[in-house]
Structure prediction request, 181 residues.
Amino acid sequence: MMGSRTATPLAEQELPALATLLAMENLPSQDITDAGRRFWRVDDPDGLLGYGGLEVYGRDGLLRSVVMPPERRGKGDGRAVVDALSREAVALGLERLWLLTIGAAGFFERIGFTRAERGEVPPDIRASAQFAGLCPGSAVCLRRDLVSPRMEPAVDAAVDAAMDAAMDAAAAIPSGTVPVR
Prediction:
């Protein structure tokens, strides 16, 4: 269901629910209570969409622990969770997000992240627990520049559809066609 989505900072007593879901997905959770970690619960009118977190390092942030209940997967809700976290990152003054993933690189690339070499990552983030050991060296590193808050998914979908239609129309023009002037 489309509707308003809210990102609510997690209180300490809510972290065990996040840890349980992370454990179900074999994602690291041993450091979620450490200082400097911020986590949110993202909801829509139907309930929990998912969770995610940020670690702030100057103008860069580490996106981490993005996880959704199994029943919410495959419905576009993952993008909604990342969009909500991206808006929180912009509100915190961040300009870029970085992340490591073992099995979700394709998902993150589809929603605007690009692959990056670990050497491109700011030193403070490379020294984080996620980069320094919680995630294996085989994890894919990705980056997303935050120019402005993401649009609502309905607007995003309309813009994507218009761009796709324009690209299809351009592709339908026979090669060698000369523009009319």
In short: The domain at 6-171 is CATH 3.40.630.30 (Aminopeptidase). The longest strand covers residues 47-57. The mean pLDDT is 84. The chain has one domain: 6-171.
